[in-house]
C-alpha cells in the first residue's frame, strides 16, 4: 500500500457496527418498555397495596420532619445561626469533633476565604469565641 492511500473499512466492520447499534437500541427499548425510563413514573414510589385491616381507621401521610438541633445559648449564637445556616444546618457544627480555638478559627477562615461567606472581621471573632466557648474539648457536653 502506498503512503498516501488509506485502507477502506470492510463490509464486515459496518455489519458489526450495525449489529451493535441494533442490540443497544433493543436493550434500551426493552428497559423503556418495562417502565424503568418512562416519564410516567418520575418522582413516584410504588406503594404496596395493604389489605383493609380497619375500615374505620384514618391514615395520613406527611413529610418526614427534620428537626435541627439547638445550639448552646450564648453570645454569638445568632451570628452562627445567621451566617452558618446559609449553607448548612447546625447539625454540621455539632458533628465536628471538639476543636481548639485555633482550629475553629481555621474553620471560620476557610468558610470566608474558600467558600466566600461574607462575614465581617468583628463577627468572625465573635463566632470563633462562641464556638470555642461551647464546642471545644474542655467545654463540649458529652
Offer a concise description of the structure:
This protein is an all-alpha fold. The protein contains 5 helices and no strands.
Notable traits:
Cytochrome Bc1 Complex, Chain D, domain 2; mainly alpha; 142 residues
Give a verbal description of the structure.
With 142 residues, this protein is mostly helical. Among the domains are: 12-37; 77-135, Cytochrome Bc1 Complex, Chain D, domain 2, CATH 1.10.760. The chain is built from 5 helices and no strands. The mean pLDDT is 81.
Low-confidence regions: none
Helix content: 40-55%
Task: Give the CATH superfamily of the domain at 77-135.
Answer: Cytochrome c-like domain
Number of strands: 0
- The CATH class name of the domain at 77-135 reads Mainly Alpha
The main pleated sheet reads as: none
Q: What's the number of helices?
A: 5
SS content category? mainly alpha
- Shape verdict: flat
Radius of gyration: 30 Å
The fraction of residues assigned to DSSP E strands is: under 5%
Average pLDDT figure:
81
Distance between the termini: 80 Å
The CATH architecture name of the domain at 77-135 reads: Orthogonal Bundle
Order of helices and strands: HHHHH
Question: How is the topology of this model organized?
Answer:
Layout: H1 11-33, H2 77-84, H3 90-94, H4 101-113, H5 121-135
Helix pairs in contact: 4-5
Amino acid at each position: 500500500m502506498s503512503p498516501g492511500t488509506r485502507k477502506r473499512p470492510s463490509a464486515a466492520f459496518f455489519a458489526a457496527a450495525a449489529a451493535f447499534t441494533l442490540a443497544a437500541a433493543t436493550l434500551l427499548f426493552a428497559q423503556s418498555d418495562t417502565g424503568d425510563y418512562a416519564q410516567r413514573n418520575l418522582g413516584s414510589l410504588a406503594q404496596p397495596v395493604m389489605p383493609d385491616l380497619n375500615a374505620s381507621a384514618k391514615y395520613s401521610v406527611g413529610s418526614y420532619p427534620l428537626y435541627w438541633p439547638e445550639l448552646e445559648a450564648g453570645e454569638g449564637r445568632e451570628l452562627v445561626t445567621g451566617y452558618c445556616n446559609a449553607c448548612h444546618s447546625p447539625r454540621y457544627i455539632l458533628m465536628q469533633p471538639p476543636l481548639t480555638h485555633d482550629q475553629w478559627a481555621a474553620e471560620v477562615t476557610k468558610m470566608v476565604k474558600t467558600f466566600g461567606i461574607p462575614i465581617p472581621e468583628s463577627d468572625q471573632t465573635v463566632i470563633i469565641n462562641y464556638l470555642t466557648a461551647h464546642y471545644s474539648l474542655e467545654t463540649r457536653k458529652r
